[in-house]
Amino acid sequence: xxxxxxxxxxxxxxxxxxxxxxxxxxxxxxxxxxxxxxxxxxxxxxxxxxxxxxxxxxxxxxxxxxxxxxxxxxxxxxxxxxxxxxxxxxxxxxxxxxxxxxxxxxxxxxxxxxxxxxxxxxxxxxxxxxxxxxxxxxxxxxxxxxxxxxxxxxxxxxxxxxxxxxxxxxxxxxxxxxxxxxxxxxxxxxxxxxxxxxxxxxxxxxxxxxxxxxxxxxxxxxxxxxxxxxxxxxxxxxxxxxxxxxxxxxxxxxxxxxxxxxxxxxxxxxx
Length: 271
Ligand SMILES: [Zn+2]
What we know:
The protein has helices at 4-18, 41-45, 142-149, 156-160, 171-181, 194-216; strands spanning 25-28, 52-56, 59-63, 67-72, 78-83, 92-97, 102-107, 114-119, 254-258, 261-265. The protein has 271 residues and is α+β, with helices and mostly antiparallel strands. The protein folds into 2 domains: 4-120, MutM-like, N-terminal (N-terminal domain of MutM-like DNA repair proteins, Alpha-Beta Barrel), CATH 3.20.190.10; 142-265, Helicase, Ruva Protein, domain 3 (Orthogonal Bundle).
């Protein structure tokens, strides 16, 4: 599933080709995504200029003036910039026509993605208004996490994966960041001290930044017939390494299900 670093890399990859362009419409081959693609998408996009391409959580937002085009990659979506006459592959459900003979093409085999029009301020939209802080935004701090975790008895791993706390921390990144911060994933969130919260915020940022750096080398892949990137190969220190020695102390990495997600930790380094 595309996580925040993959979505941000997709945004950076398509931005030079989409930003500033005046769209000429859309081709919708299958509107049955997670929510139906608006039936009038083609007419709504024609003649609108993309002022900017931003991201909020895992949503990509094209600013079209009084409306935004919202794109979500769901479980399996990918974006690429192709010549508009490139024959569509199976699952190439939507083309956004860029007015220069090219198209931004959404490929989404599982159809959990979304292409929607959001009138007015996007931060008021039901999909966006409940979202917590951006992890890479410098204004998110250890103090903010400490405040957000007071009174919360749930496991800290579950809490940092909750988009109300902070957006974009998926399962792999949560396990890796908790290892780097030396915090056991099952610890009740309210028991974290201020210094522990500061370490965790720094570790989450570091983990996401490393994944972004890994994705940077793949930016050119957005301008070809196949924009699939898969997930970035971070060097995992705990994730998927149960039974193998901890990279720091050699103790066997443990695994348990937590909130129905596989969770990995070192019983010695994390407490
Ligand atoms: Zn260890």
